[in-house]
Amino acid sequence: MLSCRYSDVDVFRRLLSQAAPHRLHLLGLLLIGLLWSPMALLAPLPLKIAVDSAVGAEPLPSFLGALVSNSSERPLAALAVAFGLAVALAVVGQVRSFAELLLRTYTGEQLTLAFRARLFRHAQRLSLAYHDRNGSFDATHRILSDAPCVQWVTIYGIIPVLAASVTLIGMIYVTAVIDWQLAAVALAVSPIIFLLSRIHSRCVRPCWDQSRRLEGATLSIVQEVLSVLRVVKAFGREGHETERFARRSRRVIATNLWIAAINGWFDLLKGLVIALAAATVLAIGVLHVRAGILSLGELLLVIGYVWQILGPVHTITNSLSSLQVAFAAGRRAFGLLDQSADADDRPDARPLGRAAGAVEFREVYFRYDEGRSALHDVSFRVTPGTRVGIVGPTGSGKTTLVNLLIRFYDPTHGAILLDGVDLRAYRLADLRNQFAIVLQEPVLFSASIADNIAYGRPDATHREIAEAAQAAQVHEFIAGLPEGYDTQVGERGMILSGGERQRISLARAFLRNAPILILDEPTSSVDARTEGAIVEVLGRLMEGRTTFIIAHRLSTLIHCDVRIRIDHGRLGPAEREAPINTRPGVLTLKGGFFEAFGGWSRARTVDR
Ligand SMILES: Nc1ncnc2c1ncn2[C@@H]1O[C@H](COP(=O)(O)OP(=O)(O)OP(=O)(O)O)[C@@H](O)[C@H]1O
Known about the structure:
InterPro entries: AAA+_ATPase, ABC1_TM_dom, ABC1_TM_sf, ABC_transporter-like_ATP-bd, ABC_transporter-like_CS, P-loop_NTPase, Type_1_exporter. By secondary structure, the chain is of the alpha/beta class. Helix 3 (45-55) packs antiparallel against helix 5 (74-125) and helix 9 (180-227) packs parallel to helix 12. It has a six-stranded mixed β-sheet. Strands 6-7-8-3-9-10 form a six-stranded mixed β-sheet, with helices on both faces. The relative contact order is 0.09. The protein has three domains: 11-337, Up-down Bundle (ABC transporter transmembrane region fold); 353-431 and 517-528 and 550-608, P-loop containing nucleotide triphosphate hydrolases (Rossmann fold, 3-Layer(aba) Sandwich), CATH 3.40.50; 435-513, 3-Layer(aba) Sandwich (Rossmann fold). Helices cover 60% and strands 10% of the residues. Bound molecules: adenosine-5'-triphosphate. Residues 132, 368, 371, 374, 392, 394-400 line the site of adenosine-5'-triphosphate.
């Protein structure tokens, strides 16, 4: 499993370095947390003063004794001191909590945002093969649900543990000064509690890993169904999908129940140890009061401190066990981050300005993961500006061929050359800049029409956007909309018709002005009338660009110079009627090697 190879220490170390840029905020939080320590030490004091000096006849503690000179006023003054101290402690405590809440929320959100952004950036760089294998929701879940682990570990893990540790030391010291025997009893439980916590963490760790994994898989059903809701509704499968979701959810519930049972058992054990310690302290304390070693107020003070000692021990052990869920999430997040990106640039990767557009496939073989071969010994060459139609039965490898050209995947064997250089030798970003893509199902984003057209060239001016829209014959339609180019198209452009969406994506390709054009069945989702208009636009778009157009309809191939056929991943024989256009273009076959030279005359092609 992708995420299980990291130890808790690895995850902890890496989360700390992820949080490092916010160390000042975290330090502030720690200081505010440490304020808790003196306040906890002072908390039982009003009760001691009230019992010993207001009810009883003990003098006030020396640092307060100077405030009261007349002994007849002492009970009243002691009561006033106890009252004032209780209110002051409560107010300071509330102010401290308020400041802590604000700083904790701010820092927590910043930490999560930074980690999410890092994961999101990396998820976009991962290969399509990774996303094909794991499903897109897997990454979504890691980005949204697992990224907060960075704040769980730092803000809800380390800081409470450090603050509680300091409080613990203070409490033990003060208790020991008052009555060392009671302090020793309280202290004796700590190792037992820590031991129980350690066993607890070991038991619960694999369960949390499983729970996070199952939760991701369950939520992926929601994502899948909502993204294809039209189909689900059309087939009336809402009930089935709900049941599928419920079935997976039941497994999550079972795992979480198991975790709750483990937590419950260990809490019970820890509670029992703590209760035994508190009862022992009470019994010894009462004996000490009877023996005159302690006053009643001091006993109450010590009992207060003993609870305060056990409180931090509880906080520390609880924080340590709840860190397990954070570590499980961290393992998943780093599992994603450690996947190597798409296609990493070689150290000596060469820059590429604007390619001429000569493309060569040289004995290319390709298979997806463990699957069967998708391309088999494909070799052909086209000169710049050649318009290549790609035909073949469904599943024959047409899309795979263009996916390799864009370097969505690398060939398993062989090479693809652009302008005579292996694609892998170029900087990936520069290489991808050479392409404009128009897909069968146009992809629009939930933004304005202008933003959608400028997607491939965000720096384009309004005028350039309008010119591209004119070239794609969609300007008039856009101009007629109440908000024109600022019209928001909704999620995936759903407020527009298929033909309108396709023209906008053609405008995007015009604006991109790339030397190589990839068209994947660009007319298959529109009606015959729209198709005619789009084919005309395509003709202009292809001019001067090396074009690969996948099509089933012959009418879409009308502007092609050559046509190649793929069958079961192999390049088929040349199509006799291939060069449909009058543009110079020719096909030759040399054994298995298929070439298309734009410079040859059409006459020779026909003669062949
Ligand atoms: N992501 C993938 N993972 C595994 N196998 C895949 C993947 N994509 C495609 N294939 C397989 O590779 C082969 C070629 O698929 P490809 O999509 O290239 O065919 P195509 O000719 O474009 O089909 P169509 O005309 O139906 O779009 C098919 O057998 C297909 O099942």
